[in-house]
Amino acid sequence: MAASSTAAGLETEAAGRAPVAATVWHFLALAAIFVFSVFPFYWMVTTSLKSQADALANPPVWLFTPTLEHYAAALFTKEVGATLVNSLIVGTATTVLAVGLGTPAAYALARFEFRGKRDLWFWFISNRMVSPIVLAVPFFLVARSLSLIDTHLVLILLYLTFTLPIVVWICTDQFRGIPPELEEAALLDGASRFTVFRRISLPLAMPGIAVSAIFAFIFSWNELLFALVLTRSQARTAPVAATSFMSGYELPWGEIMATGTLIVLPMIVFALIVSGRLVQGLTMGAVK
Q1: What whole-number distance in Å separates Cα of residue 242 and Cα of residue 255?
Q2: Is 48:70 a contact under the CB 8 Å cutoff?
Q3: How far is residue 166's CA from residue 150's CA, in Å, rounded to a whole number?
Protein backbone atom coordinates (compact mmCIF):
# COMPACT_ATOMS: atom_id res chain seq x y z
CA MET A 1 0.00 0.00 0.00
CA ALA A 2 2.85 2.36 0.89
CA ALA A 3 4.65 1.51 -2.36
CA SER A 4 1.61 2.33 -4.45
CA SER A 5 1.21 5.66 -2.62
CA THR A 6 4.87 6.50 -3.27
CA ALA A 7 4.51 5.68 -6.97
CA ALA A 8 1.41 7.81 -7.24
CA GLY A 9 3.22 10.68 -5.57
CA LEU A 10 6.15 10.40 -7.97
CA GLU A 11 3.79 10.38 -10.93
CA THR A 12 2.02 13.47 -9.63
CA GLU A 13 5.36 15.24 -9.10
CA ALA A 14 6.52 14.31 -12.61
CA ALA A 15 3.24 15.51 -14.08
CA GLY A 16 3.68 18.80 -12.25
CA ARG A 17 7.22 19.28 -13.58
CA ALA A 18 6.19 18.59 -17.19
CA PRO A 19 4.28 21.88 -17.71
CA VAL A 20 7.16 23.80 -16.10
CA ALA A 21 9.69 22.19 -18.45
CA ALA A 22 7.46 22.88 -21.44
CA THR A 23 7.14 26.52 -20.37
CA VAL A 24 10.92 26.85 -20.02
CA TRP A 25 11.58 25.36 -23.46
CA HIS A 26 8.86 27.56 -24.94
CA PHE A 27 10.46 30.65 -23.40
CA LEU A 28 13.93 29.65 -24.64
CA ALA A 29 12.60 29.09 -28.17
CA LEU A 30 10.88 32.48 -28.19
CA ALA A 31 14.03 34.13 -26.84
CA ALA A 32 16.13 32.54 -29.57
CA ILE A 33 13.68 33.67 -32.27
CA PHE A 34 13.63 37.18 -30.79
CA VAL A 35 17.43 37.45 -30.76
CA PHE A 36 17.67 36.05 -34.28
CA SER A 37 15.12 38.59 -35.51
CA VAL A 38 16.34 41.67 -33.63
CA PHE A 39 20.12 41.21 -33.89
CA PRO A 40 20.43 42.39 -37.55
CA PHE A 41 18.58 45.59 -36.67
CA TYR A 42 20.74 46.03 -33.55
CA TRP A 43 23.88 45.57 -35.65
CA MET A 44 22.68 48.09 -38.25
CA VAL A 45 21.88 50.74 -35.63
CA THR A 46 25.12 50.28 -33.68
CA THR A 47 27.20 50.35 -36.87
CA SER A 48 25.53 53.61 -37.86
CA LEU A 49 26.70 55.09 -34.55
CA LYS A 50 30.33 53.87 -34.84
CA SER A 51 33.26 55.60 -36.43
CA GLN A 52 34.56 54.09 -39.65
CA ALA A 53 37.51 52.54 -37.80
CA ASP A 54 35.23 50.91 -35.21
CA ALA A 55 32.82 49.71 -37.89
CA LEU A 56 35.64 47.90 -39.73
CA ALA A 57 37.40 46.59 -36.62
CA ASN A 58 38.07 42.85 -36.32
CA PRO A 59 37.12 41.49 -33.83
CA PRO A 60 34.00 43.68 -33.57
CA VAL A 61 34.00 46.58 -31.12
CA TRP A 62 31.10 46.25 -28.67
CA LEU A 63 31.85 49.27 -26.47
CA PHE A 64 32.34 52.55 -28.34
CA THR A 65 31.63 56.26 -28.24
CA PRO A 66 28.50 56.95 -30.34
CA THR A 67 28.68 59.52 -33.13
CA LEU A 68 26.00 61.07 -35.35
CA GLU A 69 28.38 62.07 -38.14
CA HIS A 70 27.04 59.34 -40.45
CA TYR A 71 23.46 60.56 -40.03
CA ALA A 72 24.55 64.13 -40.78
CA ALA A 73 26.40 62.95 -43.90
CA ALA A 74 23.43 60.87 -45.06
CA LEU A 75 20.83 63.59 -44.51
CA PHE A 76 22.73 66.62 -45.74
CA THR A 77 25.63 65.48 -47.94
CA LYS A 78 23.87 62.59 -49.67
CA GLU A 79 20.42 64.26 -49.46
CA VAL A 80 18.71 61.18 -48.03
CA GLY A 81 16.12 63.44 -46.42
CA ALA A 82 14.75 64.41 -49.85
CA THR A 83 14.51 60.77 -50.86
CA LEU A 84 12.58 59.97 -47.68
CA VAL A 85 10.08 62.68 -48.67
CA ASN A 86 9.81 61.11 -52.14
CA SER A 87 9.17 57.70 -50.60
CA LEU A 88 6.49 59.19 -48.36
CA ILE A 89 4.76 60.90 -51.31
CA VAL A 90 4.82 57.81 -53.49
CA GLY A 91 3.86 55.41 -50.70
CA THR A 92 0.96 57.53 -49.45
CA ALA A 93 -0.45 58.22 -52.91
CA THR A 94 -0.14 54.57 -53.92
CA THR A 95 -1.86 53.40 -50.74
CA VAL A 96 -4.75 55.86 -51.09
CA LEU A 97 -5.35 54.90 -54.73
CA ALA A 98 -4.98 51.16 -54.09
CA VAL A 99 -7.49 51.23 -51.22
CA GLY A 100 -9.85 53.58 -53.05
CA LEU A 101 -9.91 51.41 -56.17
CA GLY A 102 -9.45 48.00 -54.60
CA THR A 103 -12.15 48.17 -51.93
CA PRO A 104 -15.12 48.51 -54.34
CA ALA A 105 -13.58 45.87 -56.60
CA ALA A 106 -13.24 43.49 -53.65
CA TYR A 107 -16.86 44.10 -52.65
CA ALA A 108 -18.04 43.32 -56.19
CA LEU A 109 -16.02 40.11 -56.27
CA ALA A 110 -17.40 39.06 -52.88
CA ARG A 111 -21.07 39.84 -53.50
CA PHE A 112 -21.88 39.63 -57.23
CA GLU A 113 -21.72 36.94 -59.88
CA PHE A 114 -20.75 38.08 -63.37
CA ARG A 115 -19.13 36.74 -66.49
CA GLY A 116 -15.37 36.50 -66.26
CA LYS A 117 -15.30 36.72 -62.47
CA ARG A 118 -13.08 33.65 -62.06
CA ASP A 119 -10.65 34.91 -64.69
CA LEU A 120 -10.49 38.34 -63.05
CA TRP A 121 -9.89 36.79 -59.63
CA PHE A 122 -7.15 34.58 -61.05
CA TRP A 123 -5.50 37.63 -62.60
CA PHE A 124 -5.42 39.39 -59.23
CA ILE A 125 -3.89 36.32 -57.57
CA SER A 126 -1.40 35.47 -60.33
CA ASN A 127 -0.14 39.04 -60.53
CA ARG A 128 2.30 38.31 -57.71
CA MET A 129 3.70 35.27 -59.53
CA VAL A 130 5.56 37.37 -62.12
CA SER A 131 9.15 38.22 -61.26
CA PRO A 132 9.66 42.02 -61.15
CA ILE A 133 12.96 41.79 -63.03
CA VAL A 134 11.06 40.47 -66.06
CA LEU A 135 8.89 43.61 -66.14
CA ALA A 136 11.59 46.20 -65.44
CA VAL A 137 12.73 46.75 -69.05
CA PRO A 138 9.22 46.84 -70.61
CA PHE A 139 8.08 49.33 -67.96
CA PHE A 140 11.16 51.46 -68.61
CA LEU A 141 10.48 51.56 -72.36
CA VAL A 142 6.84 52.52 -71.79
CA ALA A 143 7.77 55.22 -69.26
CA ARG A 144 10.42 56.65 -71.57
CA SER A 145 7.99 56.83 -74.49
CA LEU A 146 5.53 58.72 -72.25
CA SER A 147 8.23 61.03 -70.83
CA LEU A 148 7.55 59.80 -67.31
CA ILE A 149 11.10 58.85 -66.33
CA ASP A 150 12.14 60.30 -62.94
CA THR A 151 8.63 61.33 -61.90
CA HIS A 152 6.46 60.44 -58.92
CA LEU A 153 3.61 59.56 -61.24
CA VAL A 154 5.39 56.66 -62.94
CA LEU A 155 6.24 55.08 -59.58
CA ILE A 156 2.69 55.51 -58.28
CA LEU A 157 1.14 53.94 -61.39
CA LEU A 158 3.67 51.12 -61.37
CA TYR A 159 3.30 50.38 -57.68
CA LEU A 160 -0.45 50.13 -58.17
CA THR A 161 0.14 47.04 -60.32
CA PHE A 162 1.24 45.04 -57.26
CA THR A 163 -0.48 46.87 -54.37
CA LEU A 164 -3.96 46.85 -55.93
CA PRO A 165 -4.09 43.00 -56.13
CA ILE A 166 -3.03 42.83 -52.48
CA VAL A 167 -5.87 45.13 -51.43
CA VAL A 168 -8.40 43.20 -53.53
CA TRP A 169 -7.18 39.85 -52.24
CA ILE A 170 -7.37 40.80 -48.55
CA CYS A 171 -10.57 42.86 -48.71
CA THR A 172 -12.49 40.26 -50.73
CA ASP A 173 -12.04 37.77 -47.91
CA GLN A 174 -13.17 40.39 -45.38
CA PHE A 175 -16.37 41.16 -47.30
CA ARG A 176 -17.12 37.45 -47.67
CA GLY A 177 -16.94 37.12 -43.89
CA ILE A 178 -19.74 39.67 -43.40
CA PRO A 179 -23.18 37.97 -43.13
CA PRO A 180 -25.20 38.81 -46.27
CA GLU A 181 -28.35 38.92 -44.13
CA LEU A 182 -27.28 42.32 -42.79
CA GLU A 183 -27.17 43.78 -46.27
CA GLU A 184 -30.40 42.08 -47.34
CA ALA A 185 -32.24 43.60 -44.37
CA ALA A 186 -31.01 47.06 -45.30
CA LEU A 187 -32.03 46.53 -48.93
CA LEU A 188 -35.52 45.52 -47.81
CA ASP A 189 -35.73 48.75 -45.81
CA GLY A 190 -35.15 50.72 -49.00
CA ALA A 191 -31.41 51.39 -48.84
CA SER A 192 -29.52 51.47 -52.12
CA ARG A 193 -26.65 49.09 -52.84
CA PHE A 194 -24.15 51.95 -52.52
CA THR A 195 -25.65 52.95 -49.15
CA VAL A 196 -25.39 49.37 -47.95
CA PHE A 197 -21.75 49.26 -49.06
CA ARG A 198 -20.90 52.60 -47.42
CA ARG A 199 -22.92 52.35 -44.21
CA ILE A 200 -22.80 48.61 -43.41
CA SER A 201 -20.16 46.61 -45.29
CA LEU A 202 -17.37 49.18 -45.28
CA PRO A 203 -17.31 49.76 -41.48
CA LEU A 204 -17.48 46.02 -40.77
CA ALA A 205 -14.60 45.33 -43.17
CA MET A 206 -12.45 48.15 -41.81
CA PRO A 207 -9.91 45.84 -40.05
CA GLY A 208 -9.18 44.08 -43.35
CA ILE A 209 -9.03 47.39 -45.20
CA ALA A 210 -6.54 48.68 -42.63
CA VAL A 211 -4.38 45.58 -43.07
CA SER A 212 -4.39 45.93 -46.86
CA ALA A 213 -3.45 49.61 -46.54
CA ILE A 214 -0.57 48.70 -44.21
CA PHE A 215 0.81 46.12 -46.63
CA ALA A 216 0.36 48.45 -49.62
CA PHE A 217 2.30 51.21 -47.89
CA ILE A 218 5.09 48.90 -46.71
CA PHE A 219 5.55 47.35 -50.15
CA SER A 220 5.60 50.80 -51.76
CA TRP A 221 8.04 52.16 -49.18
CA ASN A 222 10.51 49.27 -49.51
CA GLU A 223 10.42 48.78 -53.31
CA LEU A 224 13.86 49.12 -54.90
CA LEU A 225 14.11 47.60 -58.38
CA PHE A 226 11.57 49.72 -60.26
CA ALA A 227 12.64 52.90 -58.46
CA LEU A 228 16.26 52.17 -59.37
CA VAL A 229 15.39 51.72 -63.05
CA LEU A 230 12.85 54.53 -63.44
CA THR A 231 14.29 57.37 -61.34
CA ARG A 232 17.37 59.56 -61.61
CA SER A 233 17.47 62.42 -59.10
CA GLN A 234 14.13 64.23 -58.77
CA ALA A 235 11.96 61.25 -57.77
CA ARG A 236 14.66 59.01 -56.29
CA THR A 237 13.35 57.08 -53.27
CA ALA A 238 15.12 56.18 -50.02
CA PRO A 239 15.97 52.54 -50.92
CA VAL A 240 17.69 53.79 -54.08
CA ALA A 241 19.63 56.34 -52.05
CA ALA A 242 20.93 53.55 -49.82
CA THR A 243 22.63 51.96 -52.85
CA SER A 244 24.35 55.18 -53.93
CA PHE A 245 27.00 55.07 -51.21
CA MET A 246 28.88 52.15 -52.74
CA SER A 247 31.75 52.97 -55.07
CA GLY A 248 34.85 51.30 -56.40
CA TYR A 249 37.12 53.00 -53.89
CA GLU A 250 35.33 52.85 -50.55
CA LEU A 251 32.42 51.28 -48.74
CA PRO A 252 31.19 53.71 -46.04
CA TRP A 253 29.38 51.26 -43.79
CA GLY A 254 28.47 53.95 -41.28
CA GLU A 255 26.57 56.04 -43.83
CA ILE A 256 24.98 52.97 -45.39
CA MET A 257 23.75 51.74 -42.01
CA ALA A 258 22.54 55.22 -41.03
CA THR A 259 20.49 55.38 -44.22
CA GLY A 260 19.15 51.88 -43.59
CA THR A 261 18.12 52.88 -40.08
CA LEU A 262 16.33 55.97 -41.37
CA ILE A 263 14.44 53.79 -43.84
CA VAL A 264 13.52 50.98 -41.45
CA LEU A 265 12.77 52.96 -38.29
CA PRO A 266 9.54 54.62 -39.55
CA MET A 267 8.21 51.23 -40.62
CA ILE A 268 8.97 49.70 -37.22
CA VAL A 269 7.23 52.55 -35.39
CA PHE A 270 4.31 52.32 -37.80
CA ALA A 271 4.04 48.54 -37.31
CA LEU A 272 4.09 48.88 -33.51
CA ILE A 273 1.33 51.50 -33.63
CA VAL A 274 -0.97 49.45 -35.87
CA SER A 275 -0.03 45.99 -34.58
CA GLY A 276 -3.39 45.52 -32.84
CA ARG A 277 -5.32 46.41 -35.97
CA LEU A 278 -3.01 44.17 -38.01
CA VAL A 279 -3.70 41.09 -35.88
CA GLN A 280 -7.43 41.84 -35.78
CA GLY A 281 -7.62 42.12 -39.55
CA LEU A 282 -5.57 39.02 -40.27
CA THR A 283 -7.62 36.86 -37.89
CA MET A 284 -11.02 38.24 -38.89
CA GLY A 285 -13.05 35.51 -40.49
CA ALA A 286 -10.80 32.72 -39.24
CA VAL A 287 -13.55 31.50 -36.90
CA LYS A 288 -17.04 31.22 -38.33
Answers
A1: 9
A2: yes
A3: 25
Question: Is the bond preceding residue 165 a cis peptide, omega within 30 degrees?
Answer: no
CATH of domain 76-283: 1.10.3720.10
- pLDDT tens across 145-187, in order? 999 999 999 999 999 988 998 899 888 888 888 888 888 888 8
Q: Is the pLDDT reported for residue 287 higher than 60?
A: no
Q: What global pTM score does this model have?
A: 0.80
Residue from 151, 159, 157, 156 nearest 233 by CA: 151
Separation CA 25–CA 10 (nearest Å):
22
Helix 80-111 × helix 152-176 angle, to 10°? 40
Report yes or no: 214 and 200 within 8 Å, Cβ to Cβ: no
Sequence-separated (6 or more) residues with CB below 8 Å from residue 274: 210, 214
* Burial class of residue 184 in the structure, from the number of CB atoms within 10 Å of its CB (0-12 exposed, 13-18 middle, 19+ buried): exposed
d(CA 123, CA 283): 25
Q: Tens digits of per-residue pLDDT, 86-123?
A: 999 999 999 999 999 999 999 988 888 888 888 888 88
For the chain, the structural domain boundaries read 2-48, 76-283
The C-alpha angle with vertex 34 and arms to 32 and 36, in degrees rounded to 5, equals: 70
d(CA 46, CA 61): 10
The C-alpha atoms of residue 87 and residue 266 are separated, in whole angstroms, by: 11
